[in-house]
Specification:
0% strand, mainly alpha, 2 helices, elongated
């Protein structure tokens, strides 16, 4: 049997991910700095947030190949 985190652990991870994403968006996200770098950093942060959120929700290990 695999050790899977419980519901509360997943909710805590999503909460912390949300707070980290909000802080990073305020510091480096859309509209910060030059217009080109603000859009680029904001888009990169959005993609990383989606990857980590899917990893938490689906319990996916992206670094384990086999």
């Amino acid at each position: 049997m695999k050790n899977r985190p419980g519901c509360l652990a997943g909710l805590l991870e999503l909460f912390l991910l949300d707070k980290l994403f909000d802080w990073l968006q305020r510091r480096f996200g859309f509209g910060r700095g030059c217009s080109c770098t603000g859009i680029g950093c904001g888009f990169i942060l959005l993609v990383l947030f989606l990857i980590f959120a899917c990893s938490i929700l689906m319990n996916t290990d992206w670094f384990h190949l086999f």
